[in-house]
Design a protein that fits this description.
The chain has one domain. The chain is built from no helices and 6 strands. A two-stranded antiparallel sheet has the order 1-4. The protein has a two-stranded antiparallel ribbon with strand order 2-3. Strand 2 and strand 3 form a beta hairpin. The radius of gyration is 18 Å and the shape is elongated.
């Protein structure tokens, strides 16, 4: 099995599901439901956040 070399982390706010469709409860003229799209504000729709790395001073910085 190949090793995963990309190091990413799931967004803790959306748990990797950054975009969702929400029904408004209304239907259109042809009977389909009217939906809106919501995007995660924390990861801006990517589903991942950058990994944090520790420096020698112990301060966390984005990798």
């Amino acid at each position: 099995m190949p090793e995963n070399t990309t190091r990413t982390r799931r967004c803790p706010d959306c748990d990797g599901f950054p975009t969702v469709a929400i029904t408004t409860g209304h239907t259109t003229g042809n009977g389909t439901r009217h939906t809106i799209t919501a995007i995660c504000r924390a990861c801006h729709g990517t589903g991942t956040v950058p990994l944090r790395t520790r420096t020698a001073a112990g301060v966390e910085v984005a990798a």
